[in-house]
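# step 3/5: fold
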Amino acid sequence: MPKISTDKITPGMILTKPIQGSNGMILLTEGTELNEKWIDRLATMGIDGVWVGAAEPLMPISEALAALDARFEAVLKEPYMETLKNMVRIHIEKLYA
């Protein structure tokens, strides 16, 4: 999605590029989901526009979990790999909640 002005931002949009202040400091990072609080702050800070995308997953959760299983299939006998896989599974499930 192209750069849009702050008055067109809606809650739930995701930043596709970081937002920098006038001094070059990063205010919000890429991947931040915008809410009413951030939208209001951006408007009052004089930010003219932001690069955003929709908060839609790239694939269904079933595909994401199947890809996770396939990725870890060959290394599950290695120490800590089962623990790591479970941590990633929890993260994926939270993304889709």
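# step 4/5: annotate
DSSP finds three helices and five strands in the chain.
# step 5/5: archive (pending)
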